[in-house]
Amino acid sequence: MNAMLNWLAQIASITKFGLMSIPQRRGAVFATVIGIAGVVAVLVGVLSIGAGFRRAMTNSGSADAAIVLRSGSDSEMVSGFGRAETRLIADAPGVARNKDGPLASAELFVIINLAKRSTGTDANVPLRGVEGAAVSVRENLQVAEGRMFAWGKNEVIVGRGASREFAGLEVGSTVKVGREAWPVVGVFTANGGVAESEIWTDAKVLQAAYKRGDSFQSVYARLNSAAAFTEFKDALTSNPQLNVKVLRQSEHYAAQSETLTRLISTLGFIIAFLMAIGAVFGALNTMYSAVAARTREIATLRALGFGSGAVVIALMIESLVLALLGGAVGAGLAYAAFNNYRAATMNWQSFSQVTFAFAVTPHLLVQGVVWATLIGLIGGLLPAIRAARQPIAAALREL
Amino acid sequence: MSDSQAKNNELVRVDNVEKIFHRGSEEIHVLSKLSLLVPTGEFLALMGPSGSGKSTLLNLIGGLDRPTNGTVTVAGDRIDQLSDRQLAAWRARHIGFVFQLYNLMPVLTAERNVELPLLLTTLTKAQRQKHVATALAMVGLSHRAKHYPRTMSGGEQQRVGIARGIVTDPTLLLCDEPTGDLDRKAGDEILNLLQALNREHGKTIIMVTHDPHASARAARTVHLTKGQLTREAVA
Amino acid sequence: MKFFHLIWGNLKRRKLRTALTLLSILVAFVLFGFLCAIKQALVGGVELAGVDRLVVRHKVSLIQLLPEAYKARMERIPGVAAVVHQTWFGGIYQDPKNFFMQNPVEPEPFMAMHPEFVLPPDQMKAWLATRTGAIVGRNTAERFHWKVGDKIPIMSPIWMRKTWEFDIVGIFDGAKKGTDTTSLFFRYDYFDEARKAQNWGTGQVGWYTIRVKDPAQAASVAQAVDLEFENSAAETKSEPEGAFVQGFANQIGNIGLIVGAILSAVFFTILLVTGSTMSQAVRERIGELGVLKAIGFTNGQVVGLVLAESCLMAALGGGLGLGLAWLATSHGDPTGGLLPLFHLPARDLLLGAGLCLGLGVLTGIFPAMQANRLRVAEALRRM
Across the interface, which of C38, C254, C269 has its CB nearest the CB of A118? Predict the structure, then answer.
């Protein structure tokens, strides 16, 4: 027990000497801390793009809501239904109901060109025609500004994200679709989900404008419960009058975001990995020079009877402290710079824009700090071992 | 060299020189109203205790520093009036330095160290090599040309330092405690070498030392105390 | 270069430190090369776009079709040299993840419009002789190990929701480095006949490409085309191919900004690490620099030595890094189809070389100033 305490005391005093000498080598220490901060900031920053995109997608669909597409379609773009089919789907078992009937909305999905505010170039903005139940089918959909469009009238409401990213989508302006000009009467929010990237109007209005007759592309339905999904799906897939693909909304959006999030996380990790290698070299340099500067001091301590194990641990602690400091600075920078940064990108599955906010999640912050710790450990280990291995007599003679 | 100097045979003229350093608000008079003449071909020893100003005087003569007041004329040039840039070129042409701690570049071999001052001239590579070989031969180290300083003894390193000092055939060789870090035997070899350079090759040498054994080899010794010449002895 | 031994010797003085610094510079430049290649993959199409070509699409959106009859009307517009059309087929080969573009085209005018696609003459002849024939780019052919003579089934969820079969009659290469060779092109007459039989969108095509007689007139020709179809059921939007590609890249996001931000962070970090190492290296040999000055080296020469050392370090690390990046990116798209234009262009290599020099100067400048200010007499005392 005493030996243990003694050992800890040794570590504590060597660490203290090391930390106290930092002001004398502040240049190198500063470079290391900022170097590690840079790695962590870039890692967290890049991954926050993926996390934000995924969050927008997962906020869009809950497990007790379903989307129905024509069999063989992987997006609404290539799906299609007639009125008879959408009715069959709405009346299927498992669909929740209220006083107005089943909570199912047959919808149309098209794309229109609008200029991106940031670049002024055209972007594919989704325009959705919906039925009365659409609002209750989505979670947390609220008109935040203006009012809901009037059913049967040539009016639209726009998602908050779309309104921010694309020109001419404020309440009071008009959206031109071919020769039609539709006034924007409201702006809605949907918990940060995909719907916020869209423009909505009455499905009947859109059918008429696009000469689509009485056809739709998808049906969104709210179910009695998450468990009712199986019953709903089985009923539809076993119905010989229908040829459909039934997905939970959560699954549907997860599939839609998969390509992009995979791309971003792969690139993010490669970039961070390369940077981390660079930072490890930086940390090694700093710790080696810290050890070199203190050669004689460390040798003196060892001559006095301090153990080489204590020297190693103390130097590792110093390296870790610097790395964690860098990690904390980097994570803080990333949070300040990237959290809730608004952006829009192409969702390839629906060939249209999705607006989202970068999300610096606690998980990412932890991940950044873990990387910093690893850099600190690797950067400290070799110099610490060198310090502990120096022959005491020779080291004492050094300047 | 101007006519008057050729007549007087006077290489170094230090006239009423003062050197004041500042430490905080305090003024330290390192040299006070000091004058000194050194004729061409002399081997002069500057002696004095540490802090007497002998190294400062050497630095003034070598153009490493400027006096606060007074004039320093070396080889006809008022070097206290030259700019940094002119001084650097002037040193390259006229002065060879030998230091107490040899001050060799640890990353260069002996011959590359000796070659350093020649890099500032327009000599071709072949000419430089010839000069280096001659200088190394004069200090008796031809066989160590490819060796690094860390593999040599102190005496050998100092001989490389002297070779570097004379390789450009400078007007004046300035030595700051050249034997200060050497044992008696190695020190004697260095002093023999300096004496030979003075006698056989006519080199003018000014040597700072606090060792009477070393100053005994010089033709003339001047003593400094607290920034002033106190005593002069001719061997 | 007579000072080379001195510079080189100083770099070798602390081998470990030099190696570590070299490696961190190397890593920065590997990253630089890698990010430039990604950026090129996402926005490089703009440079490859033909300056004499316009893209004409439906004004409301790219996914809406235009009448095939527009072709003849466009050809009559002054300044128009040639017109071809393509249509989005949107087919799936085995799995939706195996994405690549397939479009029906009219072989001869299409290949004349796009000289960047190089097809051997005998394969062109075979294509003209085979109604179900298709040509595919080298990239996709290699990805799925297709060869001339293979029968390829492609399911189209847009066109009749059936599986179409194509005979691969040719494999085309890109005329320039970076040309996208991921697409498959098949014959429009085969496509149109099949959809006519089922009355499925007949007489409609996706978008047009126009070759203008004089690139300087591109903007006015684009205007004339849009004017021609104004107030019709299908209004058009025409723009130079470069602008169209740029707009498309902008839809993905502001790639330039993101890549720029990451690279700035990387270089700032490396700059700090390397700069601090250089400062330390100079501090350690203040005395030696004093000796050089005593011997007669001017301030400028001493500054030059320090700068040469930092520049040599940056050039070595940066050069190796760029070389490695070039090697690593020369195998093409690492994502298997998502980034067909992925490569490191010569322009970015040059930019990298410039950055090397900049890094060398920036990391050396502060230690060099330190060396410049050095008073010889003081420095000698610190030897």
Answer: C254
